[in-house]
Amino acid sequence: MAVTIGVARESAQGEARVALTPETTRKYVAAGARVRVQRGAGAGAHVPDQAYADAGAELVDGDALADADIVLCVQPPAAHAIAGMKPGAVLVGALQPQADESRAEAIRSHGIVAFPLERLPRTTRAQAMDILSSQAGMAGYKATLIAAQLAPRFFPMLTTAAGTIRPSKVLVVGAGVAGLQAIATARRLGAQVEGFDVRPETREQIESLGGKFLDLGVSAAGEGGYARQLTDEERAEQQRRLAEHLKGVDVVVCTAAVPGRPAPKIISAAMVSGMKPGSVIVDLAAETGGNCELTRRGETIESGGVRIAGPLDLASMGALHASEMFARNVYNFVSLLLEGGGLVFDWDDELLAKTVWPERGEDPAVVP
């Protein structure tokens, strides 16, 4: 019997993305799966229902998840929706099960096999399934455009009849995927760009995009490509040097984040007070607490003439392309589960074994 894949409208406020596109619908159908899509599921990403139907999906007015063997989502369904899924169903998306106890309990108690893709191992093989990277790229791009809109100045250098306008000085804090995309976007807009990261190995990446690496003399190289925690002395020296440097910066785009943890506080209120009036800070890390001490989640405020924006759902602002990337990531992962039109779990595959939640052995009744 063919595997049934179900996709419902996203329920999270402000979420415009969708985990399935007509492109990936065709691929699932070609793999022998039956695809059921709730009407309007792709509306936020500008994907009409007819495009899904043309790709081979069945459109449903009501519940698209109840009889699904595999449920695809961007953000997790509500606990009651998970409870309505059939026992043993597979749930794939950015699930963050441990962030909500009712959601975690619904997954456990109903025997749902959850694959939170944010848990995916950071390996070369997993790159095509990496939702964190694909969505961070859109977030970094949009954050830079927000900064350009809020800044009371041009980004590029201009030579005009009224004189020469110098380029804006943009500092991007954090050189992960979002930060590198922010650097590239600011450079395309003509700004003079610097990138700061406590991991020294990012210097080459920053410079390859035309940015200048800001070296504050503090290294926090850690394991797995993430930064280690700084000592108190290292952090104090970093803060002192950064505060001095910020006095000459026009725009700061903050992107430093560690999955599963609050965003590190890098820019203090005292640093902001030392910045020039008219300066702008866009804090991409606002959703997890912000890199700036003054950031307010989902708000744009002003402090001493400095505008500080804490935008949310940045990837949703580019929902069409963000959905295309997300859906491809999801398809590449789900294809590991599809074999001969059926659902197969190869627990010798580390991508499955290390992504599944609860972990195998933690609750044997849950995972087949």
UniProtKB/TrEMBL annotation:
Name of the protein in question: proton-translocating NAD(P)(+) transhydrogenase
Catalytic activity, as annotated: NAD(+) + NADPH + H(+)(in) = NADH + NADP(+) + H(+)(out)
GO cellular component: plasma membrane
EC numbers for this chain: 7.1.1.1
This protein's UniProt keywords: NAD, NADP, Nucleotide-binding, Translocase
Listed Pfam families: AlaDh_PNT_C, AlaDh_PNT_N
Annotated ranges, domain Alanine dehydrogenase/pyridine nucleotide transhydrogenase N-terminal: 6-139
CDD domains: Rubrum_tdh
Alanine dehydrogenase/pyridine nucleotide transhydrogenase NAD(H)-binding domain mapped to chain residues: 148-310
Family: Belongs to the AlaDH/PNT family.
SMART domains in the cross-refs: AlaDh_PNT_C (SM01002), AlaDh_PNT_N (SM01003)
Signal sequence range: none
Molecular-function GO term, any one: NADP binding
Organism: Luteimonas aestuarii
InterPro entries, alphabetized: Ala_DH/PNT_CS2, AlaDH/PNT_N, AlaDH/PNT_NAD(H)-bd, NAD(P)-bd_dom_sf
GO biological process, one term: NADPH regeneration
Function per UniProt: The transhydrogenation between NADH and NADP is coupled to respiration and ATP hydrolysis and functions as a proton pump across the membrane.
